[in-house]
Amino acid sequence: MPNVETQSEAKQPLANLDLKPSRRFCIAPMLDWTDRFYRRFARELSQQTWLYTEMVNTGAILHGDKMRHLRFDPAEHPIALQLGGSEPADLARCAKIAQDWGYDEVNLNVGCPSERVQSGSFGACLMLEPNLVADGVKAMRDACQIDVTVKHRIGIDKIEDYSFVRDFVGHIADAGCSTFIVHARNAILKGLSPKENRDIPPLKYDYAYQLKRDFPNLEIIINGGITTLEQTQSHLLHVDGVMVGREAYHNPWILTDIDSAIYGQAHRDQTRRGTMENLRVFIEAELASGTPLRFIARHILGLYQGQYGARQWRRMLSDATLLKNANWELIESALAQIENSLSHREASNLNDPS
User: Fold this and answer.
1) What is the pLDDT averaged over residues 164-187?
2) pTM of the prediction?
C-alpha cells in the first residue's frame, strides 16, 4: 500500500523509461468524469492515448487526502496530473509530488472559466496574469524532471485578437514550457456557465494552427469540439496533437481505432465483452477493497453507444437497486442479456427475412 507521499516503486513515470508515446491523441481532463475508474477503462480501449486526471487543486494535494486525489493504476501510463492553482511555491511542491507518485506529466490549468475556480485565482483568469503563470511554470520545472505543460484558452471575454494568445504562449514558452494544449475558444468569465463556455464561444481552430506556425519548436495540441477520427486526422495536418473530451467519455468505443489510425500500430481485434473481461481482475480487486460497483459502472455506460442493446446496458448498470451490494455478476448478467437479445433478434430475422 503506498504511503501518503508516494506510490510504490513499481509505478515509475514513463518519462524515466523513455517509453512514452507522443501526445498525438489525448483525453481531456474532465471534472467528475476522468477519475481513475474511467481512465482504467479508457486504457483498455487504447494503449497509446494520453490520459489526464480531473483538475486537482494544489490545496487538496498539499493539505488533503493524497491517496484519494493522486492514486492511479500502473496500466494508466502515460498519465498526466492536471493542477489548479496560482501560487508558484505550491505549484512547485505539487509538481514534485506528481513526479514522486509516478506521473508522466504535470499540467497547469489556465483554461477553466468557472466562477468557483476564479474565486481561487486560477483557471482561465490567469491568462490575464502571464507573469504569474510564467513564475509558476518556472517553479514547477525547477522542482521536477517530468514534463510541465499548460492548458489554456485563446482569449478572455471580449479579447479576441490573435495577438493576445500569441503573446501569452510566447511569454510562457520563455519560462521553459514547450507543450501547450489550446482550447480553441474564448473563456467568458462572467455570464456563462462552464457548460455554456464549452459550446457558445465560437471555435477558432485557425488560432491554434497559427500558433504552430509562429512557434514551430513548440508542441501544440488542439482541443474543443472534436468528435470524430476524421476531424482528428484533419487537425493533425496542422498541429502536433488532438485532445478529445466528452465524445471519448460518452462514446468510448471510438478509442479502439486510435492506436492503429493515429499511432500506426496493428489494429487489435476487440469486442465489448472482451474489453469487460479484461477489466474483470481490476474490477474485482476494487470491489474486494470496498469500492462500490456504482463508482465504476457509471463510467462504462457508453460502452454500447450506438449499438443494439445500448439502452438495456445503461438501464441495468445505472439501476440503484441492482447496484446496491452488486459485484461482477451484474456486469456479466448485463452482457448475457444483450447477447441473448441479439441472438433472438438474429434468429427472428432468419425466420422472417422479409
Assistant:
1) 98
2) 0.91
Task: Name the DSSP class of 40.
Answer: H
Residues paired with residue 147 on neighbouring β-strands, in sequence order: 105
Q: Which residue ranges make up the annotated binding site?
A: 29-31, 82, 151, 183, 223-225, 245-246
> Domain residue spans in the chain?
14-261, 272-351
The strand ranges marked E within the chain are 25-27, 51-57, 79-84, 105-110, 147-152, 155-156, 179-183, 186-187, 219-223, 241-244
Q: Which CATH architecture has domain 14-261?
A: Alpha-Beta Barrel (3.20)
Q: Is the pLDDT of residue 9 over 90?
A: no
Residues assigned a catalytic role: 112
Q: Could you read off the pLDDT of 176-220 as tens digits, one per residue?
A: 999 999 999 999 988 888 888 888 899 999 999 999 999 999 999
CATH topology of domain 272-351: Four Helix Bundle (Hemerythrin (Met), subunit A) (1.20.120)
Binding residues for FMN: 29-31, 82, 151, 183, 223-225, 245-246
